[in-house]
């Protein structure tokens, strides 16, 4: 009886996998595109818009590269975690590497914020901050 139930479970998983893979990408608040910084600040000159687009695009590329490295390290961590026995000699350096990558990501994000602040006026920075807070509240409200 247990073998039959197990077989049916495996079979149903096998049959449902293609259906699950064909589902469209989920929509909703978690998958919404965040507004561009130029959309969150009203009165931007053409020069400011150009500088902001350059800053954010370059930062996105660097962060994307770091996130790919982070994923690779996390995949390695999962690989060693799934192995039997003590794998600490492999895992501890990977934990350190993951932490260094996360630190680089945080520093990149902060550096981007500093560069953005240098481009904006005091009033524009305040508007950006207010709009960011409002957006964050809206996202948080939709999650609950």
Tally of strands = 0
N-to-C SSE series? HHHHH
Query: Approximately how much helix is present in the residues?
Result: over 70%
Classify the fold: give the CATH topology.
Four Helix Bundle (Hemerythrin (Met), subunit A)
Terminal Cα span: 43 Å
CATH class: Mainly Alpha
% residues in beta strands: under 5%
Overall outline: elongated
Number of domains: 1
Q: In terms of quaternary structure, what is this?
A: single chain
- Give the low-pLDDT segments: none
Number of separate helices: 5
- Indicate the mean pLDDT: 83
Q: Write down the Rg.
A: 22 Å
Would you give an account of this structure?
The chain has about 140 residues and is mainly alpha-helical. The protein contains five helices and no strands. α3 (about 45-80) packs antiparallel against α4 (about 90-120). The longest helix is centred in the middle third of the chain and has 36 residues, at about 45-80. The protein starts with a helix and ends with a helix.
Q: What does this entry show, briefly?
A:
With 144 residues, this protein is mainly alpha-helical. It is built from five helices and no strands. The chain has helices at residues 2-21, 37-40, 46-81, 88-119, 122-143.
Q: What's the layout of helices and strands?
A:
Layout: H1 2-21, H2 37-40, H3 46-81, H4 88-119, H5 122-143
Helix pairs in contact: 3-4
Task: Kindly list the characteristics that best describe this protein.
144 residues, mainly alpha
């Amino acid at each position: 009886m247990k073998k039959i139930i197990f077989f049916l479970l495996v079979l149903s998983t096998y049959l449902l996998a293609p259906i699950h893979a064909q589902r469209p990408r989920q929509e909703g608040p978690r998958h919404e595109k965040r507004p561009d910084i130029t959309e969150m600040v009203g009165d931007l000159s053409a020069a400011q818009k150009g500088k902001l687009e350059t800053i954010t695009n370059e930062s996105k590329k660097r962060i994307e590269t770091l996130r790919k490295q982070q994923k690779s390290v996390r995949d390695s961590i999962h690989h060693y975690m799934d192995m039997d026995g003590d794998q600490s000699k492999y895992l501890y350096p990977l934990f350190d590497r993951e932490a260094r990558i996360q630190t680089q990501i945080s520093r990149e994000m902060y550096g981007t914020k500093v560069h953005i602040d240098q481009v904006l006026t005091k009033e524009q920075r305040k508007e950006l901050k207010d709009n960011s807070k409002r957006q964050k509240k809206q996202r948080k409200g939709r999650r609950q």
